[in-house]
């Protein structure tokens, strides 16, 4: 088994199968959307021809939704997956959110939550470009004053209740809209079916991965995750590799790996954050160059699926810092990737 090449193929980082950004998000199941600007490249780089305009079109049309779901963090999901994923993840996400609120000394009683949510709903009717400031002004008109921290928690609660989700793409700020006006409503699968659907999306795009990886990514209980894996049956194969049991989606691609390929990977990308253990692609000696102990991730450079450096953008120019000195850099592939990214930005 070559886990690196299988992951690169499954994650659409080499030989991408899709043209539309929405198709990529649907394939991946849920993509970390922490960085508002970098999430665009995270999706587009997995398409056959990265296009900012196509990403914006899918986002503005509501085919791609940004909200808080797995692990109580930012996720991009396809519109058709939003409702069942929220139903499946809501309880754990709410528990995590209230834990953070307690740690920060914030208590929001149900009566306050319902009152503020009603104001949110009234303010957002007919709009897909609501900003946090709009909500703050609406609250002030009703003599309700709260700091930004408390307001942010109210917005998260409204997201997890199924009231609010992302609106249209703004150059630098997130916008919000009513779920009822943006996402078509349909019947929901039962919990067991939803668990299987989530596991299928994860393993087909993230294989090979362990049970612990799936637990980490989904934020669900280990019992639920183990049951979901078992329910997939023959869709998954097991393989032992370096003392660990990995699950590999039976129909995953294993051919197409091109040696020497370089990628400019954005911060919080699924290629790293989608696994609990990242040693397959990230040498332990370089771990702190990719992320810190608090969960902050940075832009990294991959070569042959291994993290070898960092990159940044300033003034429209890409700067690189190669820290993995044992690797012979493919300068041609690096320049091709820089050109691909800068072309994406210009479009």
How would you characterize the overall build of this protein?
The chain is an alpha+beta fold and 347 residues long. The chain has three domains: 3-182, Winged helix-like DNA-binding domain superfamily/Winged helix DNA-binding domain (Arc Repressor Mutant, subunit A); 191-249, Arc Repressor Mutant, subunit A, CATH 1.10.10; 262-346, no CATH class. It is 45% helix and 15% strand. A four-stranded antiparallel sheet has the order 8-9-10-11.
Which structural traits does this protein have?
Arc Repressor Mutant, subunit A, 347 residues, 11 strands, alpha+beta, 3 domains, 3-stranded antiparallel beta sheet, 15 helices, globular, 4-stranded antiparallel beta sheet
Strand percent estimate: 15-25%
Our count of domains comes out at 3
Helix content: 40-55%
Backbone shape: globular
Radius of gyration: 21 Å
CATH topology value of the largest domain: Arc Repressor Mutant, subunit A
Q: What is the spatial order of strands in the main beta sheet?
A: 8-9-10-11
Q: CA-to-CA gap between the ends?
A: 39 Å
The main pleated sheet reads as: 4 strands, antiparallel
Number of helices: 15
**Mind telling me which CATH architecture of the largest domain this is?**
Orthogonal Bundle
Strand and helix map with partners:
Blueprint: H1 3-10, H2 21-28, E1 31-32, H3 38-44, H4 52-60, E2 64-68, E3 74-78, H5 79-103, H6 110-124, H7 132-140, H8 148-160, E4 164-166, E5 176-178, H9 179-182, H10 191-206, H11 211-218, H12 222-232, E6 236-241, E7 244-249, E8 262-265, H13 270-273, H14 287-290, E9 300-303, E10 306-314, E11 317-322, H15 331-346
Antiparallel strand pairs: 1-3, 2-3, 4-5, 6-7, 8-9, 9-10, 10-11
Helix pairs in contact: 5-8, 5-10, 6-7, 6-8, 10-12, 11-12
